[in-house]
Design brief:
Layout lengths: L1 H6 L3 E4 L4 H13 L3 E4 L7 H15 L4 E2 L16 H28 L3 E6 L12 H21 L4 E8 L20 H6 L5 H13 L4 E4 L2 H11 L1 H10 L2
Parallel strand pairs: 1-2, 3-4, 4-5, 5-6
Helix pairs in contact: 3-4, 4-5, 8-9
Bound molecules: NADP nicotinamide-adenine-dinucleotide phosphate.
Length: 242
């Protein structure tokens, strides 16, 4: 996403915990004649994320776009998953998103028209066995963003939440879930794994067209739709074809 935005001449501030990884992406953006700033922070540390966002706003003379994307996946049976793991998932995926949004909001309101395009997950719309904590965290993030959209749209700030299915990234390392074997049968048969570039394009399109909720790949929209319209049938299907 940072590379896609950099290629469009956006000045990009990169935030995550691992400075070296951020420096590598920044270097790649600069090699393509883009402008990038590295501002390492842990999104669960409210003061740190506020400082990182303020640094970016100061360096760039304001902010027009925020892409809250930091997130982790940890899976397991609800009764067995360690409490610390559940807390970590909720802290990063929910509170981390909220802290990041709130840190950027004053700058985005001042710089309107502006946009928040958050990467959440299809798991926030479509639950699956073993994903109780992760699904809850992404549903919470989706709903936070939906409420925020109502609050800020008339002030010129668009809000989108991008809900991808499985993406080919290091995300599943240490997550205790293999998407090729552990997701429900229908998902494994019908939903292909996305490339990160496809999610990046979806983010750019969501900003350009002020989309609300974006689900990808397209077949997952059908899953999300059936879950909303006929939840009992969706449950039945999931239990019949685990
Ligand atoms: N991969 C998938 O199948 C998939 C599917 C649907 C949705 N998603 C969502 O997509 C987003 C990106 O995931 P990904 O697939 O790119 O996974 P990833 O390769 O593991 O990347 C996660 C990113 O989040 C950062 N991060 C994690 N914890 C952080 C924290 N406490 N503070 C700041 N940054 C933090 C990581 O950097 P540091 O470790 O350096 O901090 C890393 O840049 C996540 O929100 C994930 O839930 C992923």
């Amino acid at each position: 996403m940072a590379l896609a935005l950099g290629a469009r001449r956006a000045r990009v501030a990169l935030v995550a915990r691992n400075r070296e990884a951020l420096e590598r992406v920044a270097e790649e953006i600069r090699r393509a004649r883009g402008e990038a700033l590295v501002a390492p922070a842990d999104v669960t540390d409210e003061a740190a994320i506020r400082a990182a966002v303020a640094r970016a706003a100061e360096a760039f003379g304001g902010l027009r776009l925020l892409v809250p994307n930091a997130g982790i996946g940890r899976y397991g049976p609800a009764a067995e998953q360690p409490a610390e793991q559940i807390e970590q998932v909720i802290r990063i995926n929910v509170l981390g998103t909220i802290h990041t949004v709130r840190a950027a909001l004053p700058f985005l309101l001042a710089g309107a028209p502006s946009h928040i395009a958050a990467v959440t997950s299809s798991a926030g719309l479509i639950p699956h066995v073993g994903g109780s904590a992760y699904c809850a965290s992404k549903a919470a993030a989706n709903q936070y963003l939906a409420a925020l959209r109502l609050e800020v749209l008339d002030h010129g700030v668009g809000v989108s939440w991008i809900c991808p299915g499985a993406v080919d990234t290091p995300f599943f390392e240490g997550a205790n879930l293999d998407p090729d074997t552990d997701l429900p049968l229908l998902a494994r048969l019908l939903v292909r794994k996305l490339r990160p570039e496809e999610v990046a394009r979806a983010v750019v399109r969501a900003v350009e067209h002020n989309r609300r909720e974006v689900v990808l790949p397209p077949v997952l929209r059908l899953f999300a739709w059936s879950r909303r319209m006929t939840p009992a049938f969706a449950d039945w299907l999931n239990r019949k074809l685990p």
